[in-house]
């Protein structure tokens, strides 16, 4: 395994770890909605000419993928298409996606559907040509706990024919039009006075999870969770985790 393959493996592993922080209530997920989306996306493709895909973050798989896009690229499965994204662009997409998901989990559930992530990247077609695709991702369904469940992607052939430039991205608040620089979000995470694991614990606390539930989610002991909670309180100089959440918000780190 070469260096970039190893980095891709680690990035994919990190994505799975971040996604696992979401504690889904599987009994509340109505999977009949997938068929409704399938019918809607078929109609959309006939109207706007775009390609559409739906990602299920509970089952960690594509629930719907565009056969028209696969046909255009010359592939028969989405795995084949994914394998032919330029490795450098694929790695950057993973890293940006990981950062966005980590950042998104710090947002209140009622605003998590307000952000659209756009990636413009290079991919090789089955006949050996290189084209660019523009892919816009937005969360369309949350579960009852506010977890990211279904993510919709709208894909077009990019008007940018530059096959040298690496992946380009932007994150937009669709309600305000504001563009968020993910590097700023990354800087906030890096500058956080609490560790990444402590932040994961605090996010779950904010979701109303008990120490036992947090321990089960993170595969650690309840004692370790309580230790993290105590250290968060000490590092932020507050009296409890509710004040800790407020302190992180005041510092612009939440």
In brief, what are we looking at here?
This protein is α+β, with helices and mostly antiparallel strands.
Write a structural description.
This protein is of the alpha+beta class and 254 residues long. It has two domains: 3-185, PAS domain (Beta-Lactamase), CATH 3.30.450.20; 192-250, Winged helix-like DNA-binding domain superfamily/Winged helix DNA-binding domain (Arc Repressor Mutant, subunit A, Orthogonal Bundle). It contains ten helices and seven strands. The chain has helices at 3-19, 33-48, 67-73, 78-83, 87-104, 182-191, 196-206, 211-218, 222-236, 241-250; strands at residues 51-56, 61-64, 115-124, 130-142, 148-157, 168-173, 179-180. It has a seven-stranded antiparallel β-sheet with strand order 2-1-5-4-3-6-7, with helices on both faces. Helix 7 crosses helix 10, helix 8 (211-218) crosses helix 9 (222-236) and helix 9 (222-236) crosses helix 10 (241-250). The longest helix is centred in the middle third of the chain and has 18 residues, at 87-104. The mean pLDDT is 89.
**Class by helix and strand content?**
alpha+beta
- Based on DSSP secondary structure assignment, what is the total number of beta strands? 7
Helix content: 40-55%
Q: Quick one: biggest sheet?
A: 7 strands, antiparallel
Structurally, how many domains make up the residues?
Answer: 2
CATH topology of the largest domain: Beta-Lactamase
Q: Which CATH top level class of the largest domain fits? A: Alpha Beta
> What would CATH call the architecture of the largest domain?
2-Layer Sandwich
Using the CA coordinates, give the radius of gyration: 20 Å
Sequence stretches where pLDDT stays below 50 over 5 or more residues: none
The H-level CATH homologous superfamily of the largest domain, spelled out, is PAS domain
Distance between the termini: 37 Å
Supply the number of helical segments. Answer: 10
